Structure of SPOSA6832_04454-mRNA-1:cds:
Amino acid sequence: MSNRAAWIKSPHAKLTVEEAPMYTPDKGEVLVKVHAVSVQPVDWKIQDYNFFVNSYPFILGTDTAGIVEEVGEGVTHVRKGDRVLGYVVDPLLKSPWPHPTLHFYRHMLGLGTGNSKHSGFQEYAVVSGTTVAAIPSSISFEEAVVLPLALSTAAAGLYQPEFLGLNFPSASSPAPTGKAVLVWGAASSVGTVAVQLAKASGYKVVTTASPHNFEYAKLLGADAVFDYRDEQVVEKLVEALKGSEFAGVYDAISENGSVEKSAEVASRVGGKQFVATVLPPPEKLAGEVKAAAVFAVTVATTHAEVGTHLYGTFVPAALENGSLKCKPEPLVVGKGLESVQHGLDVQKKGVSAKKVVITLV
C-alpha cells in the first residue's frame, strides 16, 4: 500500500498532492482508508495566516470517514473492514496549549504534535480509537464526515464536569430530566450537534437561530427557538426556560455579544450559572455567571470517558435509529485530494447551513 496527501509545503502555499508515509496504528489507534473529508473554517485560516504550524511541510484536516484498514492493540469496538467516521486526534496529547488566542486552532491536533499521521487530508489517516465510530450502511461517507469535530466540540462542553456536566446521551428514549439547556446558535455545525445531544440526554432544549432556520432547529429536537437578532431575545429566552431547573448554556457562536446575552439569561433564570463557549469568553459576565472555552481533544484525553461513550456507544446506535442526524448537509465540492484546495477556497468565501466535503474514493 502507498499513501498520498494534500500537503501545505510552506507558509501561505496552496496545497500540493504528493506521497506521504504509510502509517501503522499504535496501541489505542485505528488506521482508516479515507473515503471523504470535510473542511473546517480554520483550515483556510491556517493556510492564509500561517497560524501555529510547528514545521513544514504539513497536512491539515480533522474530520474523516472511511473504512478501517488496521486496528491497534486495545481497540475492540471497530474492526478491519468497518465503515467509520473519525475525529483525527493524537491520543498522547494530554493538555491544551496555554495561550488563549490559539484556542480555536488547538482543534487541529496534528499541528500540536507535528505528526502528519494525525491529520485528515490524506488517503490513509490514523485515528484515536476513542474518537472513531462505526456507521451504518444507510449513511454515506459524505454524510457521516460532517460530524466528528462538531461532535467532539459539543460533547466536551455538554458532558465534562468542569463545563455543564449533563447526563450522557442515550439513543433510545432518554428519561426526561426535568431540566433545561440553552444552546445559542442551533444552525452552526457545533450547535446542530449540541441540540441533538442535549435532547438525547433528556433535557428540554431552548435555542436561537435565524428565522429561516427555525424549522431546522425544531427538526434537530429543539423545544423552542428564538431569533437571536430580536431585541427582546433575552426576555423571550428567560420566559421559555421558566418551569424547568436550568442546566446551563452552550454558546456555539461565542462572538458578537452572544456570550454576554447567554450569561444574562443564565443570571436571570438561576440554576447552573455557566456558559460553555467555543471561543475564549469575556472575563466579566452578568451576576455570578462563569464561562470557559471548550477543547475538543479532551474527549479523547483528560475526559476519555466522554469520547468512549459518545463514539463507542451512542453514535453507532443513534445513527442506526435516526436519533442522531448527519447535519448540516454536506456540500460536496469535488473528488480526490486535488479538490481539497478548492474546498478550502469555497469555505473561505462562506457557506451557510452546509458543510464543505470532498470525496476521496
Remarks:
- Residues 94-109 have pLDDT under 50 and may be disordered.
- The chain has two domains: 3-148+302-359, 161-293.
- The longest strand covers residues 29-38.
- The longest helix spans residues 304-321.
